[in-house]
Amino acid sequence: xxxxxxxxxxxxxxxxxxxxxxxxxxxxxxxxxxxxxxxxxxxxxxxxxxxxxxxxxxxxxxxxxxxxxxxxxxxxxxxxxxxxxxxxxxxxxxxxxxxxxxxxxxxxxxxxxxxxxxxxxxxxxxxxxxxxxxxxxxxxxxxxxxxxxxxxxxxxxxxxxxxxxxxxxxxxxxxxxxxxxxxxxxxxxxxxxxxxxxxxxxxxxxxxxxxxxxxxxxxxxxxxxxxxxxxxxxxxxxxxxxxxxxxxxxxxxxxxxxxxxxxxxxxxxxxxxxxxxxxxxxxxxxxxxxx
Length: 291
Known about the structure:
The chain is an alpha+beta fold. It contains six helices and 19 strands. A six-stranded antiparallel β-sheet has the order 8-7-18-15-10-11, with no helix packed on it. The chain has a six-stranded antiparallel β-sheet with strand order 14-13-12-9-16-17, with no helix packed on it. Strands 3-2-1-4-5 form a five-stranded parallel β-sheet, with helices on both faces. It is globular. 39% of the residues are buried.
């Protein structure tokens, strides 16, 4: 018996409809489906709701949305080592594997063991902040979590530039005056990093990618660093900085605060049914044609 966790997009009725149909299919074939309480509330699936995944054995999480829903599913499942299957209801859908009409076939193939799991590098991010107004006092730990796409240290909403000192392997590199700095995985190179004109990396690579956003300085190039290097961003001056992980604001840090990024030992696990040519996916998503 296979246990599925369904994670539908909370703002798409069609995703909720597919979740209900998938639950009916799963149960009709003798398997188990669960939905987290918040998702169940939005999708009208309270019969199958659970408060958390604690205490439940989950064999597969099924994300029904775009890349944002997929990132949420990976954030939940990555620490548990549970693979995630992406059903695409979004626009680009870099991380998703199948279209909605292919869902039942995909579920059956997973049950039959006819699938592969692709592991993607994630970033272990920690942040500490000095007590406001006194950077000399002991720091306070704010967060520790993994990022699938990127970590961004940036100016807060309505703010001006932030001043960030970047160190690599505990050695000072450069001080930046920027709107923000992106630390991305190869998977995340096609997300915010791409919008900031950073390079595109093959998702099979393991590397750290640092891209400044609107730097107020002559040096505006991205850096591609070895997977085992550590990047540390220290907030300078009087202006706060916001920390955003995979599109979600997670902390605000004052001067003296530090954000540290390194390769996580826990990869994200994505279910796939065929070898995907990254270059062809890129061409398809952007509508690129040969001359």
